[in-house]
Design a protein that fits this description.
Layout lengths: L4 E3 L5 H11 L4 H4 L6 H16 L7 E7 L5 E10 L6 H4 L9 H18 L4 E9 L8 H16 L2 E5 L5 H6 L3 E2 L10 E4 L7
Parallel strand pairs: 4-5
Antiparallel strand pairs: 1-2, 2-3, 3-4, 5-7, 6-7
Pfam families: Acetyltransf_1
Protein name: Acyl-CoA N-acyltransferase
Organism: Phialemonium atrogriseum
Length: 200
């Protein structure tokens, strides 16, 4: 599938939103935060658009997408290249929109931020959202996108981090991620991949 993967463009935005809501239809906790409402969709659009427009640089979000044989976006990965300094979600993400809950949003992302900040003190690649449309599971799209992220991290000798859903744990394990020893017992999908110089 690698020949169908590349950086996202602004023309991909409608497909990106469709893929996100399809991918996380089984994750009610997340969809209670980024709601399937005009406000939730606007929040998502404002989160994706800077990632599409940004130049590759530290502390900047980027988006890889995978397309099917018809050219439609069916999978995506949003990631950050971070320099090891804590960057709270309230600084890197859009303002909460109408129809979204401040309390629920804060509860979810403050918790994931706390785990991330506790673990990753060095520069690393942070996988924020890996999404595949439900009609395109188990076709290799997500794996191809993660391998692109791995290649990028290896070029910089950076580790990788993700706070994944348990249902996606196997995908990450297949490309070299492991449950992090500090949180893995209670949160088995809090995972990392060591930087290239530390892997045997």
């Amino acid at each position: 599938m690698a020949e169908h993967t590349r950086l996202a463009t602004l023309d991909d935005l409608p497909d990106l939103l469709e893929v996100f809501y399809s991918a996380f239809a089984g994750r009610p906790t997340l969809l209670e935060v980024i709601t399937l409402t005009p406000g939730g969709r606007e929040f998502l659009r404002q989160m994706y658009e800077p990632a599409i427009k940004s130049e590759p640089a530290t502390q900047q979000p980027k988006l890889f997408v995978a397309r099917d044989v018809n050219g439609k976006v069916v999978s995506s990965v949003l990631y950050y290249i971070l320099n090891g300094v804590s960057w709270p979600w309230r600084q890197r993400w859009p303002e909460i929109q109408e129809g979204m809950s401040e309390e629920r949003t804060g509860a979810l992302f403050d918790r994931t931020d706390a785990r991330h900040s506790a673990i990753m003190k060095e520069p690393h690649l942070y996988v924020v959202f890996l999404c595949t449309h439900k009609d395109h599971h188990k076709k290799g799209y997500a794996t191809s996108l993660l391998r692109m992220c791995n290649d990028l991290a290896d070029e910089m000798n950076y580790g990788c981090y993700v706070d994944a859903g348990v249902d996606a744990k196997g995908v990450y394990e297949s490309v070299g991620y492991f449950p992090h020893p500090e949180f893995g017992q209670n949160n088995p999908a809090t995972m990392w991949r060591k930087k290239k110089s530390e892997r045997s």
